[in-house]
Design goal:
Blueprint: E1 2-4, E2 15-18, E3 26-27, E4 30-32, E5 45-47, E6 51-52, H1 61-66, E7 69-73, H2 82-89
Parallel strand pairs: 2-7
Antiparallel strand pairs: 1-7, 3-6, 4-5
């Protein structure tokens, strides 16, 4: 589980609550960079500074944290996609040539 303590004086903390994760609160964007060599077939992209997003749900950990709550979020540790891992391991011939095969 994660526990988030707001950065406020203890006397201002509203209490402890349980909540769901807000998810990604940054919006990542990319832009094509100016190319110096026009004879190349390569494209160069750069990541722009991410933009902050507001939580979608008022009951999410991020929203409650911003309101002054200590927020506890129950989590699971295993985020492994076992099906994809099995698929990848079963097709080494399709891996990029630069990737060592084990």
């Amino acid at each position: 589980m994660t526990v988030s303590f707001p950065r406020i004086p203890p006397s201002e903390i509203k209490g402890v609550t349980f909540a769901e994760r807000a998810g990604m609160l940054l919006d990542f964007d990319f832009a094509k960079a100016i190319q110096q060599n026009s004879s190349s077939n390569q494209e160069v992209w750069q990541m722009l500074l991410p933009k902050r997003l507001d939580p979608v749900s008022a009951e999410s950990d991020a929203a409650l944290y911003a309101q002054g709550w200590v927020v506890v979020v129950p989590m699971v540790a295993d985020e492994l996609d076992t099906k994809l891992l099995s698929d990848l391991k079963s097709k080494p011939a399709q891996w990029p040539s630069w990737l060592p095969k084990k």
